[in-house]
């Protein structure tokens, strides 16, 4: 039996070597959400860092917000599917309530897009999730990091830190992505699309 909780999974790679790179923006958003809600992530046997809480506000004023499971993997990006599957099973969360937050080179930096399903766009974390979950029908909150300049390889580009100009805008960008995650859960996907796709 499924419950009403949501799983928000920030994709990325483990360790200080990767924590400030473009590929880890999903994990940065989880950090932002944990600070907002006042919950700490705990390392678990499910190959994840996990925190559970309720969003501060819900669709009905005065009532607590939806329950959320916030998580990042302790493994590498291309192994994201296993931990997500384990978390969904452990907390009895249906795939329709899984939100993956990830970098996307196909949209410009400081751009937010949201969708359910679709292709993986060469993103190994999404590819792993789709393979293990057996469906594409989970929400993707796509954080634009843009294409690499010149002939630089895309795989190398996403594993490098943000530029100086990008770093100046990054805190507000991460805050906006976190807003989009909360909006997806409380108000629905269409509201996110109407708010952010035209920016």
From TrEMBL:
<keyword id="KW-0820">tRNA-binding</keyword>
<dbReference type="Pfam" id="PF01195">
    <property type="entry name" value="Pept_tRNA_hydro"/>
</dbReference>
<keyword id="KW-0378">Hydrolase</keyword>
<protein>
    <recommendedName>
        <fullName>Peptidyl-tRNA hydrolase</fullName>
        <ecNumber>3.1.1.29</ecNumber>
    </recommendedName>
</protein>
<comment type="subunit">
    <text>Monomer.</text>
</comment>
<feature type="binding site">
    <location>
        <position position="78"/>
    </location>
    <ligand>
        <name>tRNA</name>
    </ligand>
</feature>
<feature type="site" description="Discriminates between blocked and unblocked aminoacyl-tRNA">
    <location>
        <position position="13"/>
    </location>
</feature>
<feature type="binding site">
    <location>
        <position position="124"/>
    </location>
    <ligand>
        <name>tRNA</name>
    </ligand>
</feature>
<dbReference type="InterPro" id="IPR036416">
    <property type="entry name" value="Pept_tRNA_hydro_sf"/>
</dbReference>
<dbReference type="GO" id="GO:0006515">
    <property type="term" value="P:protein quality control for misfolded or incompletely synthesized proteins"/>
</dbReference>
<dbReference type="InterPro" id="IPR001328">
    <property type="entry name" value="Pept_tRNA_hydro"/>
</dbReference>
<keyword id="KW-0963">Cytoplasm</keyword>
<feature type="site" description="Stabilizes the basic form of H active site to accept a proton">
    <location>
        <position position="103"/>
    </location>
</feature>
<feature type="active site" description="Proton acceptor">
    <location>
        <position position="23"/>
    </location>
</feature>
<dbReference type="GO" id="GO:0005737">
    <property type="term" value="C:cytoplasm"/>
</dbReference>
<dbReference type="GO" id="GO:0072344">
    <property type="term" value="P:rescue of stalled ribosome"/>
</dbReference>
<dbReference type="GO" id="GO:0004045">
    <property type="term" value="F:peptidyl-tRNA hydrolase activity"/>
</dbReference>
<dbReference type="InterPro" id="IPR018171">
    <property type="entry name" value="Pept_tRNA_hydro_CS"/>
</dbReference>
<feature type="binding site">
    <location>
        <position position="18"/>
    </location>
    <ligand>
        <name>tRNA</name>
    </ligand>
</feature>
<comment type="function">
    <text>Catalyzes the release of premature peptidyl moieties from peptidyl-tRNA molecules trapped in stalled 50S ribosomal subunits, and thus maintains levels of free tRNAs and 50S ribosomes.</text>
</comment>
<comment type="function">
    <text>Hydrolyzes ribosome-free peptidyl-tRNAs (with 1 or more amino acids incorporated), which drop off the ribosome during protein synthesis, or as a result of ribosome stalling.</text>
</comment>
<keyword id="KW-0694">RNA-binding</keyword>
<feature type="binding site">
    <location>
        <position position="76"/>
    </location>
    <ligand>
        <name>tRNA</name>
    </ligand>
</feature>
<dbReference type="GO" id="GO:0000049">
    <property type="term" value="F:tRNA binding"/>
</dbReference>
<comment type="similarity">
    <text>Belongs to the PTH family.</text>
</comment>
